[in-house]
Each structure stands twice: as structure tokens, then as C-alpha cells.
Amino acid sequence: MTAPSEPTPGAPAPYTFTEQEKRITLIGLMVVFLLAALSQNIVGTAMPRIVEELNGFNLYTWVTTAYLLASTVMVPIYGKLSDLYGRKPILVFGVVLFLVGSALCGIAGEPWLGQFLGGGMNQLIAARAVAGLGAAALITIAFTILGDMFNPAERAKFGGLFGAMFGLSSVIGPVIGGFLTDQFSWRWTFYANLPLGLLALFMIIAKMPSLSRRSGGKVDVLGALLILTTTIPLLLALTWGGTTYAWNSATILSLFAGSVVSLILFVLVERRTPDAIIPLSLFNIPIFTVGNVASFILNMAFFGVIMFLPLYMQMVLGVSPTKSGTSMLPLMLGLIVTSIVAGQIVARTGKYKPWMIGGGVILVIGIWSLTSLKPDSHLLDLYWRMFLVGMGLGPAQSLFTIAIQSGVSLGQLATATSSSQFFRQIGGTIGAAIFGTLLMNGLHTELPKHLPAMPARRSTARTST
């Protein structure tokens, strides 16, 4: 790995890498990416068992929301830190923190912890937040390194493989999660991250080149705090609205108002900060703005699907955790196929817009078809709908980030990549909160209507008469 003799003043030196360094780094990044993706998908099929054992159905969505919120807030911070201190140290730190969080998740609710933090469910939520703080570095730095080492055509090709890796993790994650939950305990869905994480850590430390691309500046601490004060009240309002508090209650309205005020302050601060955590000038680039808005919306839909389909299959259709995991295969098959095909074709043609638009249209059709499912629907009715959703999601898994990277300079690469991941994840976080709220509101409204028809209620009524 060598640097050119005459780098552009004020810009990071564009390194060149040997083919061996590229191969080793690519393998290491795929392991890291698989680790991050598995952490999002392996838990879903275990959640019904977790909330049953820890008595926390009212906190169901917070296990995912805490993870997504913690990782979302840290994404742009890690992007800036990798500019200041290099990609590799930040990636190592993220993996270590993620492993610590995973281990803490596994011990949540153990009897010897007692009522620490208010009980097992709260312990799990806090541990998931710790894991999320580490996971934020994994995907963000992985895509940034991909942009550092490969030209745009290669990024599209390998980005498609990364999307397929996400699809693979989404296939094996629910299956592994369901198997471990059925055969051992839901705790092993978290412990399973440890061996893969240690492998990733070894490959990063021992095999990956230093990637010591550093630039001047400082961390935008105030901007990071304002991101926190904007997103947390918003998510609390979306999660509590209509369930814990009425939508027009003072609490919910205050949270929304606080989020809006914080957002306005964030924009004012970022306009005047030379080292802004999300430079507003990036929004002058059309592909950056349009790509992030579309990615935000698609990720809302994605998390709404993967979070609650296992719940529907287990609690409505009555399938086991293992079977609900294998039932996700059609969705992930569609995702893997279109992700790889789109990446390969875009690498040859350079035209990514038709794939993005086509994927969005197919996704809308697939999600609309899911709305016709009923309590007595057969799994085959679900499978073809899930395949459509997967086909629509596939191109979005990598092409949005690759397109955004192609529209910015090398000096803006880390910031643009981390900003892209931030908008993706904030979309998923808000989607999880919104769909969780819709679920709880629906239960509060519809469950009392159907309780008299339940067998247990009819039996009790006959006994009393």
C-alpha cells in the first residue's frame, strides 16, 4: 500500500492497494457485515419467547428500538472519528463494544441480577443499547472502507455482494434464532454473536491493512447531542402515543415540540460549524438528498416487515420459532437474487436508477399484498407475498450507498457514507416505533371485541351459569 508522491493539498491522500490486500480486506469486511446483519435478524424469532419469559410484551418494540436508536445516533460520529483517527481503530473499538453488549444481552434476566434496572426486560433493553453503540461502527466503517479501496464500478459489484450477505444473514439469522430458542434458550441467540465477532476481530487486527487515512478537524459534539435530543423525544412520542399516553396529551405534544425545537437548533448549529457532523452542503447534491430520502422510507418498510412477520406467524398462525424462521426464506431469497443481479449489472452499465425505481415499485406491491392476510391464511399465501417484498428490497441494500458515494469527493466519502447509513437507520428506527405503536393500538382496540369469542372465555361463562 503506497501513497502518491503529490497528494492534493487539504485532501486525504488516495492510497493504492495490492490485490492481496483488497481480497483480505473484502473478506474481513464481509465477516464484519455478516456480524452486524445477524445481530438485527437473529433475535426476531426469539422475541415472543423473550417477552413471555421476562414478562415484557409492553416493551416488545423497545428491544429493537433501543438497539437501532443507539446505533443510529453513533453512525455519523463514527464516520467523523474514522477521519480523525483512521478506519481500523474505530472498527476494532466497535466490534469489541458490540461483543460486550451481546454478552450482557445473554445474561439479562438471570436470577442473580434480581431487579437491577427494574427487571430482566429493562436489562435486555439496556444491553441491546450497548450492542447498538458498537454495531454503529460495523456497517458504517465497512462501507467507508469499500469506498476507500475500490472504484465506483467495483463498489457496485461488491456492494451487491454485501447486500446478498445481508440477505444471507436474514435467511440464516431467523433459522438459527428459532433453532437456538427451541433447542436451548433464547439467550443463545445473543451468545451466538461471540464466536463470529471474535473471528471478525482477529481478521481486522491481524490481516487488514492499517487504512490510516486521517484528516484534520474535530468531533462536532454539539451536533451529536442535538441529534440525540431530536431523535429520542420523537421516538418516545411515536412509541407512547395512543398506548401509554393519548396522542393529544401534554406529554406527547411536549415530546414532539421538543424534537422540532432540537431539529431547528441542529440545522442552525450545523450551518455555522466547519466540522459539522452532517454538513448541510451535502444536501445541495441531488443524489445525496434523493437517495437518503428514498432509503429512509424503504428502511421504514423493511423493519416493519421483518419485526412483526415472526410475531404474526407464531401468535396468529401458531407456528414454532424454528418454523417462523424458515418461513422467512422466500423474502430473503428474493432479496439475495435481486441484490446480486443489480450489483453485477450496475457494475457493467453504470445505470442504477432503473433498479432503484423498479425495486421500490415491487416493494410497494409486495407490502400492499401483505395487507390482505387473514388469521386463517395459509403459509403458502404468505410465501409469495414475502418473495415480492424481498425482490423489492434487494437493490436498495447496497445501491443507495454506492450511488451516494459516487456523487461526492474523496474527502467527503466518510461523512457522506455515515450520513447515508444514519438516514437508513433512523428510518428503520422510526419505522419500528410507528409499526409497534400501530400494533399496540390495534390490540387495545380489537382485542376486547374478540375476547368473548375465545374458548377460555366461553368455558368460564358456562361454568359460572
From TrEMBL:
Pfam families: MFS_1. One of its GO terms (molecular function) is transmembrane transporter activity. InterPro entries: MFS, MFS_dom, MFS_trans_sf. The chain crosses the membrane at residues 24-47, 59-78, 90-113, 125-146, 158-176, 188-207, 219-240, 246-269, 281-309, 329-347, 354-371, 383-404, 425-444. GO terms for cellular component: plasma membrane. It is a multi-pass membrane protein. The keyword Aminoacyl-tRNA synthetase does not apply. Residues 25-465 form the Major facilitator superfamily (MFS) profile domain. Keywords: Cell membrane, Membrane, Transmembrane, Transmembrane helix, Transport. Gene3D superfamilies: MFS general substrate transporter like domains (1.20.1250.20), Multidrug resistance protein D (1.20.1720.10). This is MFS transporter. It comes from Deinococcus cavernae.
